[in-house]
Design goal:
The chain has one helix at residues 50-61; strands spanning 8-11, 23-27, 32-37, 46-49. By secondary structure, it is an alpha+beta fold. It has a 4-stranded antiparallel beta sheet with strand order 1-2-3-4.
């Protein structure tokens, strides 16, 4: 079973310093990207396959 401590968690620099309504992305798994709510770091995580996460990020960056 995976634990959240297995990842290096990263929060977007656009999220500000208040910590409200932020998602964190975990690094350390080449096949899936875990995502969690920054307010509940020990809570559940969602895992996205690498291709799906890349497509999501690409869509966010598109004009």
């Amino acid at each position: 079973m995976e634990t959240t401590s297995e990842y290096a968690w990263h929060r977007s620099s656009y999220s500000g310093g208040s910590g409200d309504n932020c998602l964190e992305m975990g690094r350390g798994n080449p096949t899936a990207t875990p995502v969690r709510d920054s307010k509940t770091p020990d809570g559940p995580t969602l895992r996205f396959q690498a291709a799906a996460w890349s497509a999501f990020i690409g869509a966010l960056k598109a004009p």
